[in-house]
Amino acid sequence: MIVASPLRTGITTLTLRRLRPDAWPPYYTDVDMPELPDVTAYIEALDARIHGATLRGIRLARPFVLRSVDPPLSAAAGRKVLGLRRLGKRIVIELDGGLFVVLHLMIAGRLHWKQAGAKPSGKIGLAAFDFSTGTLVLTEAGTKRRAAIHLVLGETSLREHNPGGLEVLDADLETFRAALGRENHTLKRLLTDPTILSGIGNAYSDEILHRARLSPVKLSRQLTDEETLRLFEATRGTLLEWIERLRTKAAGEFPEGVTAFREGMAVHGRYGKPCPTCGLPVQRIVYAENETNYCAGCQTGGRLMADRSLSRLFREDWPRTVEEMEARRRGAG
Q: Tens-of-pLDDT digits for all 333 residues of the chain?
């Protein structure tokens, strides 16, 4: 329910139920899936625990999580684990006989390493993978069931699960530049498009763009050579830094508490908090189930980007700069 009420400042504000009272504009809940650094952390932890082990069987607590029928799930039982790999944001477990288990965690899917025979927990438990060394439990919080398991036979079938985006950590500058130029999108959309760049989502795209000092809404074909270099170095640097941070944090333990909001992030999930570079409050754009977090001082020359829904409501009253936003926040308070 939205209630509009006039304020002494002459602008219109919104009162939305169940929103954080000190937020301006209103607070939204961000939902992000595990991305390249998080998936890498899972794969490294799994490699240490199941590489060379035998997959004794897969127990499904929620049958819908299995999205393939041929080969049957029973075909994986008794197979030796030959290795693990990442396919975009998917985790691939390679078994002998040319079989591959493909796990797509989507937004709320998470993995947990348990003692052998552990059961999938409560309403969020989806499946349990019983290995000779222990049990891997797949869970998914929330009401939307998006996580998926596929069992495929052969490299050809496996490639069908690859969105095809460029692996930036394996690419050089010219290959990266060519990928950016394929389509003329905003940088935020381009970074998160799995068919263009692999493994990057909502959270790390915010961090990359802040590090590169580029606006999320700048079009890819408008980038100068110097900006392209900054984006390339920021993308590689951000991903490598967070892979190492998560590796250090895990210290050999299985990663738990995987989240899109990490201590030490510059802008993602830090709306209203000071930018660690310039000190201005972090801003955001909200759309659908996601939000873009950015620093106006570092990325947009001090100008606020219009929120699609709220700017239509505020119209000419929508603030254009951080200073104007802060002044109106104080007036509304």
A: 333 323 333 333 333 333 333 333 333 334 568 999 999 999 999 999 999 999 999 999 999 999 999 999 999 999 999 999 999 999 999 999 999 999 999 989 999 999 999 999 888 999 999 999 999 999 998 778 899 999 999 999 999 999 999 999 999 999 999 999 999 999 999 999 999 999 999 999 999 999 999 999 999 999 999 999 999 999 999 999 999 999 999 898 999 878 777 889 999 999 999 999 999 999 998 876 678 999 999 999 998 887 655 444 444 454 555 555 555 555 555
- Closest Cα to residue 34, out of 231, 305, 259, 269? 259
Domain layout of the chain by residue ranges: 36-159, 165-306
- Which residues does 70 contact at the CB level (< 8 Å), separation at least 6? none
The CATH code belonging to domain 36-159 is 3.20.190.10
The number of CA neighbours under 13 Å toward the Cβ of 29 is 4
58: which strand partners? 129
Dist CA 62 CA 45 (whole Å): 25
The token duo for 215 is 């606006």
Residues in CB range of 109: below 8 A, 6 or more apart: 33, 34, 103, 126, 138, 139, 140, 146, 147
For the chain, the C-alpha Rg in angstroms (whole number) is: 22
Closest CA relative to residue 130, chosen from 47, 41, 50, 48: 50
Going from the C-alpha of 275 to that of each of 2, 210, 238, 296, the distances in angstroms are 31, 10, 16, 9
**The listed CATH number (1.10.8.50, 1.10.10.10, 1.10.3720.10, 1.10.238.10) that belongs to domain 165-306:** 1.10.8.50
3 state SS of 236: helix
